[in-house]
Amino acid sequence: MKTNSQPIGIFDSGLGGLTVIKEIIHLLPHEDLIYLGDTARVPYGEKCPETVIKYALQNAKFLTNKKVKCVVIACNTAAAFSLEKLNESLSLSCLGVIEPGAEAAVKATRSGKIGIIGTTGTIESNAYVKAIKRLNQSIEVFCQACPLFVPLVEEAWHVHPITHQIAEIYLRFCFEKSIDTLILGCTHYPLLKKIISDILGPEIFLIDSAITLAEKLAGLLIKEGLLNSQSLQGKHTFFVTDMPKKFYNLGKLFLKENVFPVEHIDITNY
Amino acid sequence: MKTNSQPIGIFDSGLGGLTVIKEIIHLLPHEDLIYLGDTARVPYGEKCPETVIKYALQNAKFLTNKKVKCVVIACNTAAAFSLEKLNESLSLSCLGVIEPGAEAAVKATRSGKIGIIGTTGTIESNAYVKAIKRLNQSIEVFCQACPLFVPLVEEAWHVHPITHQIAEIYLRFCFEKSIDTLILGCTHYPLLKKIISDILGPEIFLIDSAITLAEKLAGLLIKEGLLNSQSLQGKHTFFVTDMPKKFYNLGKLFLKENVFPVEHIDITNY
Fold it and tell me: By CB neighbour count within 10 A (0-12 exposed, 13-18 middle, 19+ buried), where does B250 fall?
């Protein structure tokens, strides 16, 4: 039996999901949140579907043991590969970043040409393309894997001139294919928004999957009668599977507030 | 009881160790080799010591089950954190990349100023610094973590102008500190040798840990009477814990020959 006072569970392969947490806190300030960053096995973006599904199931198990009322997959690769599996095996609602981003892009496009950038795993999964085609078969979709973006953000080079040059190379396809809407298909990419919008200009609309996911989550909680009715600011608890130090240091960059408390757990027991 | 016809076991966090295999094949062509790339949990470079030691023990267990005559830790981070632990718990010789590299650098330096580049994990472990200081207390050592080098090599940008620019930033300390010897403290870095030596010029001597390790291994096998006496080319077998596809594609870049056959195994059972 689920009650509205239970926390929301969110998992990600590492730090990136903190951009999702940030938008959830912004939209749903009274919710208690439990975040799990699987930093011992990050990144998921270059791993094969079977491995990612196995990791996602362990992460979800950890969160359901913490009595969450729903599970958010904040990692694009994990959402791409494991949402269906998780919805089959969990007895609560499970939400990924892919569908909300795809819906927002389909609503936003005028030309019917959408671009997607993400990790190799997310792009090769074709999950965004399938989600967009389910909504509108006639939309043209163009994809580009950007494997250097995550390490650049984690080096805190998110506004560095070299990152600008690399982004120019990765984003060339946006002009060549005349897209008018670009999905930032990785939770690290909102930190590159300034560089990306400087390169693409005002004509290309950026879809931030973190924002669209938070909106979808709010809708789900309202529909299921599970909005937390407390008037206090919600409690936020963080778990990681490795190296809380880096999580602390970079966490603030992603979340715009201190990531605290962080507890180190062993995920292989789940 | 060890015999000279047993294979040599080599493990790495992923692909990088293939540069080590390349040098071992070059120096010891008649040896049978078993390589394990822990691609499901790569990279080790940003993970904490406890996690890396746990992974290293599992990898070594897999290799000893394959009846290897010695174990080579081709990953700098794994060698930095786990060599001592592995030597304690295995009943055969275990060799890491750190000590041979440190010895070669101490022999090479004239000015007594050595530089080290590596992943965050390797640099923070201080393993090279300790190994050098054990050999010669008076040598000055200067370190620089280069977290973007691995993803740049894996994007196959090892001769890209942007990689040159990034290397110029990372290597600035070499001139500021007037070093005359630089240890390439990561198995991916031999692929960046061209760019690194273009930037540093002929005055700074580069130590390639893969080459120094292969030489040390040859010495060990001779000393222990374990050199394979077959006149044929040795057999090379590859195991990975995830995604053989990327391993195939990038393997040739590292090894300069086809990586074949590759078998996908589950390491968590070890």
Answer: buried
Contacts of A192-200 with CB under 8 Å at 24 or more apart are A192/A149, A192/A152, A192/A153, A192/A158, A192/A163, A192/A167, A194/A158, A194/A159, A195/A158, A195/A159, A195/A163, A195/A164, A195/A167, A196/A167, A196/A171, A198/A164, A199/A164, A199/A167, A199/A168, A199/A171, A200/A171, A200/A174
| Closest CA in chain A for residue B40 | A47
Nearest to B148 among A39, A51, A151 (CB): A151
pLDDT band of B257, cuts 50, 70, 90: confident
The tens digit of pLDDT for each residue in A157-205 reads: 999 999 999 999 999 999 999 999 999 999 999 999 999 999 999 999 9
Is B249 an interface residue toward A (CB < 8 Å)?
no
Residue-wise pLDDT for B94-105, tens only, equals: 999 999 999 999
Torsions phi, psi of A128, nearest 5? Answer: -65, -40
d(CA B224, CA A241): 41
Interface residue B40 vs chain A (CB under 8 A): yes
Which of A153, A166, A170, A270 has the highest number of chain B CBs within 10 A, making it the mutation to test binding with B? Answer: A166
- Contact call for B147 and A165, based on CB within 8 A: no
Of A39, A162, A245, the CB nearest to B162: A162
The DSSP letter of residue B225 is T
A127 interfacial to chain B (CB closer than 8 Å): no
In this structure, chain B runs to a length of 270
- One-letter amino acid identity for B210? A
Complex ipTM = 0.86
All domains of chain B in start order, with CATH: 8-97+211-269 (3.40.50.1860), 99-209 (3.40.50.1860)
Catalytic residue among B70, B143, B174, B186: B186
Question: How does pLDDT run across B223-255, given as a tens digit for each residue?
Answer: 999 999 999 999 999 999 987 777 888 888 888
Average pLDDT over residues A78-105: 94
Cα separation, B105 vs B115, whole angstroms = 9
Measured in angstroms, the CA of A242 and the nearest CA of chain B are apart by 6
For residue B261, is the peptide bond before it cis, meaning its omega torsion is within 30 degrees of 0?
yes
For testing contact with chain A, the best of B48, B146, B160 (most A CBs within 10 A): B48
Q: Is B146 assigned a catalytic role?
A: no
Per CB-CB distance under 8 Å, the chain A contacts of B168 are: none
Q: Running DSSP on this structure, what letter comes out for residue B96?
A: E
DSSP per-residue codes, B171-191: THHHHHTT-SEEEE-STTGGG
The pLDDT confidence band at residue A250, using thresholds 50, 70 and 90, is confident
User: Quick check: is A174 catalytic?
Assistant: no
A28 touches B: beta carbon within 8 Å: no
